[in-house]
């Protein structure tokens, strides 16, 4: 016949299925009995409404005015000019010196390089007006653009 049952698909005997159903029913009946036994007995006259529970102050949502005035990103990390140049140089050297034809190497490293470039983009902002830092950062951006173009040609 074209009809198949769950027991024939799973190769389980009907006896095991009946036993599992019986166990589930027993557990369900015992759970209901335990709930009934543990529920407090209240008379009709002694019913009192449950007290209203308020969320702690720290968990309450801020007003819309406060949300509009909030800054989405605040950092106290500060890098001086020399640190920024060092990070830019090391990032450029790492990306430039890798084998761009090695697909597996790029699959493993490009996501980390993109994260590092995002970080560099934020820490270089105070020094972009300086010629040396601005030039170095534009070289790094151009390097990443060329890397993406090479990936596109390869794919």
What report would you give on this structure?
The protein is an all-alpha fold and 155 residues long. The protein has six helices and no strands. The two termini are 51 Å apart. Helix content is 63%, strand content 0%.
> Any low-confidence stretches, pLDDT <50, length ≥5?
none
SSE string, helices as H and strands as E: HHHHHH
* Rg on CA atoms, Å: 33 Å
* Largest sheet: number of strands, sense, barrel closure: none
Helix content: 55-70%
Average pLDDT confidence is 74
Number of strands: 0
**Alpha carbon gap, first and last residue:** 51 Å
The portion of residues forming beta strands comes to under 5%
Shape: elongated
Number of helices: 6
Structural class by SSE content: mainly alpha
């Amino acid at each position: 016949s074209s009809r198949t049952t769950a027991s024939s698909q799973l190769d389980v005997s009907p006896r095991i299925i009946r036993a599992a159903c019986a166990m589930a029913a027993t557990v369900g009946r015992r759970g209901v009995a335990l709930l009934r036994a543990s529920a407090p007995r209240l008379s009709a006259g002694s019913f009192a409404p449950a007290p209203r529970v308020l969320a702690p102050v720290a968990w309450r949502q801020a007003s819309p005015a406060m949300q509009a005035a909030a800054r989405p990103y605040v950092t106290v990390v500060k890098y001086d000019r020399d640190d920024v140049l060092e990070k830019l140089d090391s990032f450029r050297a790492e990306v430039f010196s890798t084998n761009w034809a090695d697909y597996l190497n790029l699959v493993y490293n490009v996501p980390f390089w993109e994260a590092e470039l995002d970080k560099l983009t934020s820490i270089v902002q105070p020094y972009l007006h300086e010629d040396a830092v601005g030039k170095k950062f534009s070289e790094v951006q151009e390097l990443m653009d060329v890397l993406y173009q090479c990936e596109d040609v390869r794919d």
